[in-house]
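Limitations

Structures in this collection are predictions, not experimental determinations, and the ligand pose is part of the prediction. Treat each record accordingly. The example that follows, with zinc ion as the small molecule, is included so readers can see exactly what is and is not provided: the inputs are given verbatim, and the output is the predicted complex.
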Amino acid sequence: MSDRGTPGKASSSEEEYFVREDAEKKRRIALQAKKEKEAAELKRLKDLHWMHCPKCGMQMQEIQYRGVDVDVCFSCNGIFLDAGEIEHIEKPESRGVMSSILNWFKLETKKPV
Ligand SMILES: [Zn+2]
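Predicted complex:
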């Protein structure tokens, strides 16, 4: 049986079109909700881990030395460099920066407690 041609009543192909449109709209809404949830989760993780040592979890401190921002964990003596800072340290004009930074820790660990 076909509704085609009946005034005021949608044909099965029209009904299918609207169902598909509705499903597509709901899919877009769900996808948007998923993206928002993922963004919220990424923000939550960033807030939770920001400037915390990846090894021991303690708060890290930023030390600026000769144009390099070094994140240092004074709990386990871990050192974290941001993206691009290794390349900066490798430059001839930055020679000695890393060994200077490492020397701070050598002095730190030699100190009697
Ligand atoms: Zn640490």
